[in-house]
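Appendix B, example 12.
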Amino acid sequence: MTAEASVDAVLSGLDGIRPDIEDLYRDLHAHPELGLAEHRTAAKAAEALRGFGYEVTTGIGGTGVTGVLRRGSGPTVMLRADMDALPVREATGLPYASTATGTGADGVQRPVMHACGHDVHVACMVGFARLMAAATDAWRGTLVVLFQPSEEPGDGARAMVEDGLTDKVPRPDVVLAQHVLPYPAGYVGTRAGSVLSAADNLRVTLRGRGGHGSAPQAAVDPVVMAAMCVLRLQTVVSRETAATTPAVVTVGSVQAGTGPNIIPDEAVLQLNVRTYDQETRGRVLAAIERIVRAEAQASGAPAEPEIEHLNAFPPTVNDADVTARVADAFAAHFGDAAHTLPLQTASEDMSELPNAFGVPYTYWGIGGTDPERFAEAERKGTVGQDIPTNHSSSFAPVLQPTLDTGVRALAVAALAWLSTDSGAGPA
């Protein structure tokens, strides 16, 4: 059976299960859970997979779930969906909007919503898994579906690997993943090579000497020190990085002091750094440390600043051959809706999964914005202002054709390996 015939056979059941996929999406959207607390979401995924006949393993890395379905000899393909939500108060006004709260790692309870579309990913993966299980004669090989916890903090994939993932499921020939993005619903986009940036989060504590606001000469003001650092850090990209080399340095948090007439003892900055290769990453991080230490010295700080590396995301670099195979399959199935995905400055930990197995991967995007709304914003030149992005409190993918596209993309990509005439190699 050709890949196209396999896709048609698998997707022939989509009309019949579409209402169930939409209901699952609405349910997940209304009940979001923070990273490593996705107990309800994981339970729903595991229950569905068992019902479809998959070999299910739960609790990997905390709340991770895998399902394995075997259909004779052939390639092994793993597909990943992330499950966690964000500490954001929802402002979409949807009838199924979240009113949930959750307690983060800091012990603080906050509103929670699916502001990044992971509910789309889970619903599409469940729908895809159901269709594959029903199409017994349309493919051969081994299918591994993986529901990953805690992508947002960047520790979920690593947690699954450290909990023995590579011993719990068959070794895949290739790993595939997708993400909903603020492009028109129906859009699919692939990109070979660098697609998502590496990310480093840092906390910088600047040491001063506190005193009375009326006598700054008797103090060493860490607020001024922090202000100088913030301004000088902007030059790391604008003056130390080539214009052709993408990089971002953001100071996302500045905290100091308790009152207007009190010079505090310290100021704390939190930084986010985005780069696409190790050489640039190393140079940018070294520049940040040099600038912070130099500003502290210039201010006469009584102690060295403390620079802590909080966490890091690896770069996502799509394998060229794997991406070409998926891109060709998407072009054949989606036609003009298949595009080249622009380079993204967001970050992901998905690559830790294929890297643990030592296998190639590709990661693509699907659109989730109402096409007419996107077209109007594009016509006015206001896409950046009018179209909510991931992590926005107003981010709300339209149900269709977003969910259909997500299910179809998973099937088309997987069957580029698993269709009966696709061959056994990764590319």
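The mean pLDDT is 96. DSSP finds 14 helices and 18 strands in the chain.
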